[in-house]
Amino acid sequence: MADVADAATWAKRAVFVLLACVIAVAQLVPLDLEPATWAAPDLLLAMMCVWVARRPDYAPVYIIAAVFFAADLFFQRPPGLWAALVVLLSEAIRNRHRDLRSMTFVAEWAFVALGLVAITLANRFVLAIVMTPQAPLGLTMMQLGGTIVVYPLVALVAHYLFGVAHPAPGDMRKIGQRS
């Protein structure tokens, strides 16, 4: 059956893509000419995790794949590797969506953090196997830690600013199926 989405869902999907573009451009704009000594958190990844954990219909897999493949190209990463790992993480979160809705926020945060650690280590492992140059391990772990730490703030902003919240247990979509 085809995915039937109403105008509000398409609007939230457009907001997701627009925010992804803003985050990517903000990361590409040079603010300092000195090399960075610290790694900023991956806000795009944290945003994707929040949106999929809260409202998976607002971030379908084809949009996530396209956004992260474009990010691979923009940030000059090996094309498709990080995008594929992020798609795997998004699908793992999407499969646990109903469970996450009934969990506490700390449990949701821990589940997402475990997924972030898993894809980061898998990325480093694959890049090591094919002998691709990588960022130092310290910077990678700094970025991973920052992404995990910033997750609650991204969830707060998504909830209050963009209305991306868990649906109530009895909420029904327009077509009559539970969300």
Topology, element by element:
Blueprint: H1 7-28, H2 43-54, H3 61-74, H4 81-95, H5 97-102, H6 105-129, H7 137-162
Could you characterize what this model shows?
Helix 1 packs parallel to helix 3 and helix 2 packs across helix 7 (137-162). The chain has one domain. It is globular. It has seven helices and no strands. With 179 residues, the protein is mostly helical.
Quickly give the structural class: mainly alpha
Shape: globular
* Weakly predicted, low-confidence segments: none
What is the count of β-strands?
0
Rg measurement, Å: 17 Å
* Beta-strand percentage range: under 5%
- Estimated helix fraction: 55-70%
Number of domains: 1
Compute the separation of the termini in Å. Answer: 16 Å
SSE ordering: HHHHHHH
Averaged pLDDT: 89
Taking the sheet with the most strands, its summary is: none
Q: What count of helical segments does DSSP give? A: 7
